[in-house]
Design goal:
Number of helices of chain B: 11
Low-confidence stretches of chain A: 1-38
Low-confidence stretches of chain B: none
Oligomer: heterodimer
Bound molecules: adenosine-5'-diphosphate, magnesium ion
Distance between the termini of chain B: 42 Å
CATH topology of chain B: MetI-like fold
Largest sheet of chain A: 6 strands, mixed
Number of domains of chain A: 1
Number of domains of chain B: 1
Radius of gyration of chain A: 19 Å
Shape of chain A: globular
CATH class of chain B: Mainly Alpha
Order of helices and strands of chain B: HHHHHHHHHHH
Number of strands of chain B: 0
CATH superfamily of chain A: P-loop containing nucleotide triphosphate hydrolases
Helix content of chain B: over 70%
CATH topology of chain A: Rossmann fold
Largest interface: A-B, 30 and 22 residues
Largest sheet of chain B: none
Number of strands of chain A: 10
Number of helices of chain A: 11
Radius of gyration of chain B: 22 Å
Strand content of chain B: under 5%
Order of helices and strands of chain A: HEEEHEEHEHHHHEHEHEEHH
Structural class of chain A: alpha/beta
Chain lengths: ~280, ~280
């Protein structure tokens, strides 16, 4: 049942712009300038298994994630999307029972061998619910800089990060107010600014819009688009429209396995796997 | 009326009455202290040493300073130990260790204060061959630990784990996360707990009987027997002299007021300093 675009056991799905004859190439990249400009691989992941206690929730994921594109992860609730995302910055280690097997290479370096503090500076994360610290707006953004012993102007970096998160104009007059005075959408952009402050190469977002209204959601999607040149973005979403709108590549996970991984337009128009089609047409999940 | 609405009315009355009872006990005590003690309160009370029987104009200056020193020392011991152990309990301890530790702390909380006093007597008074502020403060400090530990733990646990995750995901180490995010978020609560512990030991008399003992004069440094308000209240109240009885009431009033003041001042300072309530 080896249809094109379907992941088989033992086969890596590679996202490379240059087609080589000897590697099994499943698809070509979509004709987007940002993609063709830099299509090197940021993450190379092979045989990723994660279990919580005796329960294995990811059963061997092989996937490569390209630089400076937005990769969306979709799949029904409980299929392991968050777990996958959290293994990319080793946040899985905060769960006592979690065990991770397999190799995750970030720029060809195994993240298991990296200093976890350095790794998390390079791979930032934004969570499902906005979780600003009970501190001022300024202190929230400056937090990552301070703990990393930032040298130079703190306020310049804070402003820069807030601008990148498209929040500056709304908060520039109230930087010293509590972050809790902001609306939900502003709080989430504040969390994005906080993550951007340490200038990560990768930004992981776990359903960042699920608690937000459509207008705010649109703002954040626009934001992702603008961050693309400077950041590799992996976003988990259960909103199919969002994946279709905002991402360049989409990976479909089901019960801890990668079912299909395609350029987004292709996955949503002509999915190779019947399970993908069933999911995106809303027949289950 | 239906049975359900009768139940509602009865329970509302009962709970309300108990709440009222609590409040009125507090105000009754305060009023009683003020009524009997206020007449003995004078400038002398705060500035003079105790006078012999039948000599008018004596005060309790040494006991006020003694109590302050004892409580300061108690805080120096009880607060850091209590807070650090609370942090360990909430942030580091595994399930089994945590429950053993929690049980032990609760046991310590239940140890009668006089037993704590004997303990301090054995480890400090006997080797030093003297009653002292040090021994009294030590006994009170030990008594502060359990309340501080448990309240610190409670308030740290109430900090949402999403804040810890946010900090860790920014590359903060575990200890940095605790000191910069978790503890500040729970700071107000932790301090309230410490205040409770302080108020709880401020009036303890039993553990002072064979540690700080008493002193009719000034106690210099930390290694002399010292007067303290609760001990003065005890000795004056059981004396046969009316004059001393009034002074005992006054001392009680001062003690309660001091605890209340410390409480109010910290709360005000906190409210001003941390406007970032959730
Ligand atoms: N901390 C945890 N401890 C135990 N099991 C967990 C934990 N986190 C997630 N799981 C389990 O792992 C599976 C995948 O969860 P998750 O990665 O959160 O899925 P998704 O994000 O796709 O909804 C679920 O069955 C969930 O119950
Ligand atoms: Mg999830």
């Amino acid at each position: 049942m080896a249809s094109v675009g379907t992941v088989h056991s033992g086969n890596n799905v590679n996202l490379k712009s240059e087609q080589s004859v000897d590697t099994p190439q499943r698809f070509s990249l979509p004709p987007k300038p940002s993609v063709t400009a830099d299509s090197s691989l940021r993450f190379k992941i092979s045989g990723l298994k994660v279990s919580y206690g005796p329960k294995e929730v990811l059963h061997g994921i092989d996937i490569n994630i390209s630089s400076n594109v937005v990769t969306a992860l979709i799949g029904p609730s409980g299929c392991g999307k968050s777990t996958f995302l959290r293994s990319l910055n080793r946040m899985t280690e905060t769960v006592r029972t979690a065990r991770v097997e397999g190799d995750i290479l970030l720029d060809d370096e195994n993240i298991a061998d990296m200093d976890v503090v350095k790794l998390r500076r390079r791979v930032g994360m934004v969570f499902q619910r906005p979780n600003p610290f009970p501190k001022s707006i300024f202190d929230n953004v400056a937090y990552g800089l301070r703990i990393n012993g930032h040298k130079g102007s703190l306020s310049e970096s804070v402003e820069h990060s807030l601008r990148r998160a498209a929040l500056w104009d709304e908060v520039k007059d109230q930087l010293h107010k509590s972050a809790y005075t902001l609306s939900g959408g502003q709080q989430q952009r504040l969390c994005i600014a906080r993550a951007l402050a340490v200038d990560p190469e990768v930004l992981l977002l776990d359903e960042p819009c699920s608690a937000l209204d459509p207008v705010t959601t649109a703002k954040i999607e626009e934001l992702l688009f603008q961050l693309k040149p400077s950041c590799t973005i992996v976003i988990v979403t259960h909103n199919m429209q969002q994946a279709a709108r905002a991402s360049d590549f989409t990976a479909f996970l089901l019960e801890g396995r990668l079912i299909e991984y395609q350029p987004t337009p292709k996955l949503f128009t002509t999915p190779a796997d019947p399970r993908t089609e069933a999911y995106i047409t809303g027949r289950f999940g | 009326m239906t049975r359900r609405s009768v139940t509602n009315v009865v329970m509302l009355t009962l709970t309300g009455a108990c709440a009222l009872l609590t409040v009125s006990v507090m105000f009754y005590i305060l009023g009683y202290l003020a009524w009997h003690g206020a007449s003995a309160l004078s400038w002398n009370f705060f500035t003079k040493l105790p006078a012999p029987v039948n000599v008018p104009g004596g005060g309790m200056a040494n006991a006020i300073v003694g109590s302050a020193k004892l409580l300061l020392l108690a805080c120096c011991i009880g607060v850091p130990v209590g807070i650090l152990a609370g942090i360990y309990l909430s942030e580091f301890a595994g399930h089994t260790i945590a429950s053993v530790l929690r049980f032990t702390v609760d046991l310590l909380n239940g140890v009668p204060s006089i037993v704590i006093g004997i303990f301090a007597y054995t480890v400090i008074v006997l080797p030093m061959h003297t009653f002292s502020t040090l021994a009294g403060g030590f006994a009170l400090g030990i008594m502060m630990i359990p309340i501080s530990v448990r309240s610190t733990e409670e308030y740290l646990r109430a900090v949402p784990s999403s804040l810890r995750e946010a900090s860790l995901a920014l590359g903060a180490a575990r200890w940095a996360t605790i000191t910069r995010v978790v503890v500040p978020a729970a700071f107000r609560g932790i301090l309230t707990g410490v205040m409770l512990a302080l108020a709880r030991v401020a009036g303890e008399t039993a553990p002072l009987i064979f540690t700080a003992f008493g002193n009719n004069s000034w106690s210099h440094g930390w290694s002399q027997p010292t007067a303290s308000l609760p001990f003065m209240i005890y000795t004056y109240a059981v004396s046969p002299y009316d004059d001393w009885h009034r002074q005992a009431w006054a001392a009680g009033l001062v003690l309660v007021t001091l605890v209340l003041l410390v409480n109010i001042v910290t709360r005000l300072a906190l409210a001003r300093k941390m406007p970032l309530s959730r």
